[in-house]
């Protein structure tokens, strides 16, 4: 048995590598999508927190303004130091909120106006008690201006939040588009990689299938050498070993048949001559019973000689089927030639033979294809009733050329259909008065047609026998 060459991966290992590559591609894309999703979620959460902080600081600023106004006016009216310190505390809280908003994008111009207004109010809190009421009215007027400033700041904060929200949505849309493109690209690459690997890995198996079909069709002259994974290479070498073994067995069979046939023909010839001498009365006059025995011996020796010669013809036909001599041949002309060759036979039975179809040329071996057609036509003539019709039809179908031969005879029985092409098999429907055939005609037809890469079949379409020869256009 052959041994596989080292250093090659098996089909299973290559398939595993292919799946790992595709899995890594899709897994990497999924992991990247997860990372992008986490980043977008974190970014969204951060923006939401910043928006809440801005809104809260704007609310704090408004609330502290109200508290500052109350503490400032009461401290002026009551000249209370505690209320003054409360104003300063609220001012510090308000300034801190303003700084946080400025850090979050509040324009410095608005923040500066608010600070200047607060500084002006703080300046009004200092002074003699005689001017407290006047300063209290000035503080009240200044705080009314704070309402417009706080409203502007609140509006600006909303605009900042909306701008950031819009920017976040744009960023999300852009990231989603990029992620979609990446996923689509990964799927496309995985599909291309899968198709490429599938085609690359399937190609050796198609060649293996063709090699096995060649062995099945007895095309033993074609060397089998298929590259690919280690197990495919191993199978290729085993098939090549099988081809060589079949070639040897085929040659042994041919030698055996020739030897046996030769060894049988010599004693058979002596037996036939002896029987002939008995029938001629050379050894003495025979009575009626003895003549009947001599007749039976003569009949059986002739049958045995016919069987031996048929065996030799079939063996020669099987060998010659593998040695085609193709040439471009007009198939319609070939059919007419075979009909003309057997004209005496079908005219003697009063048969009508018709050839139908258009001229069609195909590269075939005209001798072997002619023999196949002649055998089928001869069978049709033997089995056709007197005054019957035989039709030979040449058809061109997609991918193949068909030659149909149909007669009006008894047809082939159901039990004979499966074995009709077996060597030396003769069906149960035999024409009356005709010499019994050897049973190799259809076997030779099958050998010659199979050698052309075609097939011959028996169709079931009513009375009579209808055989079809199919030849590929690319034969």
How would you describe this protein?
The protein has helices at residues 11-78, 81-103, 108-125, 132-216, 230-279, 288-320, 331-341, 343-348, 366-383, 414-417, 441-451; strands at residues 327-330, 352-356, 361-364, 389-397, 400-406, 455-459, 466-472. With 475 residues, the chain is of the alpha+beta class. Strand 4 (389-397) and strand 5 form a beta hairpin.
Main structural class: alpha+beta
CATH classification class of the largest domain: Mainly Alpha
What is the global morphology?
rod-shaped
Count of DSSP H/I helices = 11
Lateral strand order in the biggest sheet: 2-4-5-7-6
Over the alpha carbons, how many angstroms does the gyration radius reach?
53 Å
Overall helicity: 55-70%
CATH architecture of the largest domain: Up-down Bundle
Overall residue-averaged pLDDT value: 79
Order of helices and strands: HHHHHHEHHEEHEEHHEE
For this structure, the CATH topology of the largest domain is f41 fragment of flagellin, N-terminal domain
Q: How many beta-strand segments?
A: 7
Terminus-to-terminus distance: 34 Å
Q: Could you list the spans in which at least 5 consecutive residues all have pLDDT below 50?
A: 1-7
Q: How many independent structural domains? A: 3
């Amino acid at each position: 048995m052959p041994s596989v060459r080292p250093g090659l991966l098996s089909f299973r290992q290559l398939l595993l590598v292919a799946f790992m590559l595709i899995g890594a591609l899709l897994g990497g894309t999924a992991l990247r999508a997860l990372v992008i999703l986490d980043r977008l979620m974190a970014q969204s959460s951060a923006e939401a927190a910043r928006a809440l902080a801005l809104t809260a600081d704007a609310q704090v600023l408004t609330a502290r303004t109200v508290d500052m106004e109350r503490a400032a006016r009461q401290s002026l009216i009551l000249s209370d130091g505690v209320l003054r310190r409360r104003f300063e505390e609220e001012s510090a809280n308000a300034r801190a909120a303003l700084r946080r908003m400025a850090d979050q994008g509040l324009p410095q111009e608005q923040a500066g106006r608010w600070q200047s207004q607060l500084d002006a109010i703080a300046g009004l809190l200092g002074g003699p008690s005689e001017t407290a009421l006047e300063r209290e009215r000035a503080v009240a007027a200044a705080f009314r201006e704070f309402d417009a400033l706080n409203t502007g700041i609140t509006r600006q904060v909303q605009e900042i939040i909306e701008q950031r929200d819009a920017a976040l949505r744009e960023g999300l849309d852009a990231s989603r588009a990029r992620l979609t493109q990446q996923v689509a690209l990964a799927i496309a690459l995985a599909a291309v990689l899968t198709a490429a690997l599938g085609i690359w890995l399937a190609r050796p198996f198609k060649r293996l299938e063709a090699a096995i079909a060649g062995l099945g069709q007895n095309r033993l002259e074609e060397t089998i050498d298929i590259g690919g994974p280690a197990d495919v290479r191993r199978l290729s070498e085993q098939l090549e070993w099988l081809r060589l073994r079949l070639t040897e067995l085929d040659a042994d069979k041919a030698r055996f048949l020739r030897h046996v046939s030769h060894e049988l023909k010599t004693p058979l010839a002596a037996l036939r001559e002896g029987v002939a001498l008995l029938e001629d009365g050379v050894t003495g006059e025979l009575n009626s019973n003895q003549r009947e025995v001599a007749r039976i011996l003569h009949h059986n020796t002739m049958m045995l000689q016919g069987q031996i010669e048929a065996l030799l013809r079939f063996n020669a036909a099987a060998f010659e089927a593998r040695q085609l001599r193709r040439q471009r041949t007009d198939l319609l002309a070939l059919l007419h030639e075979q009909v003309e060759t057997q004209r005496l036979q079908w005219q003697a039975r009063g048969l009508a033979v018709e050839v139908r179809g258009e001229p069609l040329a195909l590269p075939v071996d005209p001798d072997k294809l002619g023999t196949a057609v002649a055998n089928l036509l001869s069978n049709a003539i033997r089995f056709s009733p007197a005054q019957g019709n035989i039709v030979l039809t040449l058809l061109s179908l997609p991918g193949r050329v068909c030659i149909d031969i149909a007669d009006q005879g008894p047809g082939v029985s159901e039990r004979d259909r499966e074995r009709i092409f077996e060597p030396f098999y003769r069906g149960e429907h035999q024409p009356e008065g005709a010499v019994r055939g050897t049973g190799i005609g259809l076997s030779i037809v099958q050998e010659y047609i199979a050698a052309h890469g075609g097939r011959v079949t028996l169709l079931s379409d009513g009375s009579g026998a209808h055989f079809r020869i199919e030849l590929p256009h690319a034969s």
